[in-house]
């Protein structure tokens, strides 16, 4: 059954924080995805091999879509599917940065552009999690309800899609935590070589993406899954381009390589399916409002 339910609209500070975050991750993705061979000059730390750089760049660009879509959401109920994964990712990445600070371009011998990128990186990852906590508290305390089309009672996604999202979330979260905790051991199941730093950097992304997938399956409003769905589709498309560019580094036809592609396909199917459903939700909401 569908109904108009009152929920809190997104407050301006949260909207602008998401816009700023989207711009920043777009810049990071630009360096990593477009110039993977020049991270020693333009990024906070040197990323090798290039496939790792384009993988991370694809994740940054996909998350830019998540944050932009969240910023354009009508309500906090919808936007929070973008907020919490970003908060988790930035917090974990700050921890990874502090653990591996010796690998970052802080020494006088590195390129000036790389040093600037490093200080910008440190400032961003120190400030964004704090800003998200403060503004989230403001958001939760706001009491200005507005009507939003919502399906009440139970999650609206089909059981099969919810099961698929749960499986994806489980894989990403478990493997992401393993990369963060024991990167050397966990990297043995990754399809190309990783250092401790790159393993943990990828682990932070997997946990953030896994959290987003876990949240999405419980949605009671078709439109709230749209940020996660768009991010999933963009992530898969960008990773496919990355494989076309540097896929030769993967250890074909090993189990890790096959597993990597299988998970990407699952994310693509789930994202495309959820996006199709979310579009139908928007159409129905518009019809109700006529």
Question: Would you write up a description of this structure?
Answer:
This protein has 290 residues and is mainly alpha-helical. It has one domain (2-289). It has helices at 12-34, 39-42, 50-71, 76-99, 112-141, 159-181, 183-186, 196-216, 226-246, 255-289, and strands at residues 2-7, 146-151. Strands 1-2 form a two-stranded antiparallel sheet. Helix 6 crosses helix 10. The radius of gyration is 19 Å and the shape is globular.
In a nutshell, what does this entry contain?
The longest helix has 35 residues, at 255-289.
Features:
mainly alpha, 10 helices, 71% helix, globular, two-stranded antiparallel sheet, single chain, 2 strands
The percentage of residues in β strands lies in under 5%
What can be said about the biggest beta sheet? Answer: 2 strands, antiparallel
Number of helices: 10
Q: Helix and strand string, N-terminal first?
A: EHHHHHEHHHHH
Spans with pLDDT under 50 lasting ≥5 residues?
A: 146-153, 282-290
Helix content: over 70%
How does the SSE layout of this entry go?
Blueprint: E1 2-7, H1 12-34, H2 39-42, H3 50-71, H4 76-99, H5 112-141, E2 146-151, H6 159-181, H7 183-186, H8 196-216, H9 226-246, H10 255-289
Antiparallel strand pairs: 1-2
């Amino acid at each position: 059954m569908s109904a108009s339910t009152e929920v809190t609209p997104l407050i301006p500070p949260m909207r602008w924080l998401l816009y700023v975050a989207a711009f920043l991750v777009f810049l990071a993705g630009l360096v990593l995805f477009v110039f993977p061979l020049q991270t020693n000059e333009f990024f906070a730390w040197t990323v090798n091999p290039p496939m790792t750089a384009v993988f991370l760049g694809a994740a940054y660009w996909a998350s830019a879509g998540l944050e932009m879509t969240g910023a354009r959401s009508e309500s906090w109920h919808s936007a929070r599917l973008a907020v919490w994964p970003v908060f988790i990712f930035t917090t974990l990445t700050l921890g990874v940065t502090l653990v591996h600070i010796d690998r970052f371009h802080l020494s006088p011998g590195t390129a000036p552009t790389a040093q600037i990128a490093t200080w910008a990186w440190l400032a961003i990852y120190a400030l964004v999690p704090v800003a998200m906590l403060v503004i989230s508290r403001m958001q939760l305390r706001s009491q200005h309800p507005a009507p939003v089309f919502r399906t009440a009672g139970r999650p609206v996604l089909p059981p099969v899609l919810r099961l698929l999202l749960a499986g994806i979330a489980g894989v990403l979260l478990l493997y992401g935590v393993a990369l963060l905790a024991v990167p050397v051991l966990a990297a043995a199941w990754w399809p190309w070589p990783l250092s401790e730093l790159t393993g943990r950097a990828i682990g932070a992304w997997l946990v953030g993406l896994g959290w987003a997938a876990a949240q999405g399956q419980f949605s009671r409003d078709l439109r709230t899954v749209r940020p996660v769905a768009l991010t999933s589709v963009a992530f898969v498309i960008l990773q496919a381009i990355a494989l076309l560019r540097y896929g030769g580094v993967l250890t074909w036809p090993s189990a890790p390589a096959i597993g990597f592609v299988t998970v990407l396909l699952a994310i693509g199917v789930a994202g495309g399916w959820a996006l199709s459903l979310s579009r139908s939700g928007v159409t129905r909401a518009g019809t109700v409002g006529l």
